């Protein structure tokens, strides 16, 4: 892994101490994970967003991961992809103002949804979290929030989603039901299967269907089901790639704790797996553009850009280095997600410009007809 990757990701004190001991040539036996009663309930908060909140709110903000924006992109970007895709399918091109208003609504929804999903995940995984160095100081694991309080907070967040759907078409609310159920079920999957990343991909990809519904587009009609499902599956594969790489940070602790994941199942050949999934992902994106009749702009930016970004990141990541795995997770949403969105955005702008040119031409022809003498 190159030095520039290490500098981009802030290392934890545990990783620093580990590196110090390695550099000094000392071999230390790993210290046993503390029991919940040994974990401090109040952890000093570093300067930043959380330091501005009342002390009683901090643990709940941590549950929602408000201090960790990288994971938020995993929730929000699929909604942007769905809006971009839907805007390329509509008979009448939606206005930029309308699209921006939907982006704002889904921004709020993604924050709430992520908070509920992460709180529920931490509640279910609290015993696992206490055995993993990276997660042992999460609010529930360390005792800052009780299980009952966490459950009530989860319910409150889910109910907070309702005002968002009042501003959206009714069909969006129907999509929210399976999304919430799937996120709830995902938290249990790491106990029974090595493929929880596959399960996680479904609620993320379902955002594409909800975004299309927000534009009054039926994404699974007979002539749209192939491109839509291709994009849906491409998003699932991308989730499997980045979450498997991310899980390599905790692979040793996860094995001891009994957690199952694709990182453990494919530990020795994760890069080969990622390369295979990435190839299929790009092929599915190509299928989406081909079946939806999109222009070369889409293929250059989305298919070409995504292929380059995936190849670069898979080649560069060092799975044995936690900071490199974190780099892959953080930057992947900008490189891969950004490339995928760019094609839809460029396609939308091209359609919008063409639509405005047609409208302007019609208006000028009408004015000329009325103005010329009989």
- DSSP helical segment count: 17
Give the helix level as a range of percent: over 70%
How many beta-strand elements?
Answer: 0
Mean pLDDT: 85
Rounded to an integer in angstroms, the radius of gyration calculated over CA atoms is 23 Å
Count of separate structural domains: 1
Secondary-structure element string: HHHHHHHHHHHHHHHHH
Shape: globular
| Major sheet summary line | none
Distance between the termini: 77 Å
Low-confidence stretches: 1-33, 361-371
Percent strand equals under 5%
Secondary structure category = mainly alpha
Give the arrangement of secondary structure elements:
Layout: H1 3-8, H2 13-23, H3 55-63, H4 70-87, H5 96-124, H6 126-129, H7 139-142, H8 147-160, H9 162-166, H10 170-189, H11 196-214, H12 225-247, H13 251-257, H14 262-265, H15 270-292, H16 296-316, H17 322-371
List the defining traits of the structure above:
EC 2.5.1.39; 374 residues; disordered N terminus; 4-hydroxybenzoate polyprenyltransferase, mitochondrial; transmembrane; 4-hydroxybenzoate polyprenyltransferase activity; transferase
């Amino acid at each position: 892994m190159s030095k520039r990757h290490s500098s981009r990701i802030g290392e934890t004190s545990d990783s620093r101490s580990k590196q110090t001991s390695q550099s000094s040539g000392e071999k230390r036996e790993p210290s046993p994970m503390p029991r919940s009663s040994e974990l401090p309930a109040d952890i000093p908060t570093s300067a930043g967003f959380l330091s501005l909140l009342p002390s009683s709110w901090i643990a709940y903000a941590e549950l929602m991961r408000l201090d960790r924006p990288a994971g938020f992109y995993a929730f929000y970007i699929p909604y942007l992809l769905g809006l971009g895709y839907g805007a390329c399918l509509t008979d009448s091109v939606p206005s930029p103002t309308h699209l921006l208003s939907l982006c704002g609504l889904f921004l709020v929804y993604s924050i709430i949804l992520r908070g509920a999903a992460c709180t529920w995940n931490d509640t279910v995984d609290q015993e696992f979290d206490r055995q993993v160095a990276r997660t042992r100081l999460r609010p529930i694991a360390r005792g800052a929030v009780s299980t009952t309080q966490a459950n009530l907070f989860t319910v409150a967040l889910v109910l907070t989603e309702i005002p968002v759907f009042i501003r959206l078409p009714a069909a969006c609310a129907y999509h929210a039901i399976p999304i919430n159920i799937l996120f709830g079920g995902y938290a249990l999957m790491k106990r029974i299967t090595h493929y929880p990343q596959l399960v996680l991909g479904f609620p993320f990809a379902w955002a594409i269907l909800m975004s299309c519904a927000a534009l009054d587009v039926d994404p699974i009609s007979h002539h749209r089901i192939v491109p839509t499902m291709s994009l849906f599956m491409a998003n699932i594969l991308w989730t499997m790639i980045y979450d498997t790489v991310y899980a390599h940070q905790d692979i040793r602790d996860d094995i001891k704790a009994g957690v199952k994941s694709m990182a453990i199942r494919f530990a020795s050949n994760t890069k080969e797996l990622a390369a295979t999934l990435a190839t299929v992902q790009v092929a599915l994106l190509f299928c989406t553009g081909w079946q939806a009749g999109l222009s070369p702009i889409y293929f250059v930016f989305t298919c070409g850009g995504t292929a380059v970004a995936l190849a670069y990141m898979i080649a560069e990541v060092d799975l044995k280095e936690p900071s490199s795995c974190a780099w892959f997770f953080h930057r992947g949403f900008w490189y891969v997600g950004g490339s995928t969105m760019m094609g839809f955005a460029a396609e939308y702008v091209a359609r919008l410009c063409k639509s405005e040119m047609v409208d302007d031409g019609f208006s000028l022809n009408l004015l000329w007809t009325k103005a010329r003498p009989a």
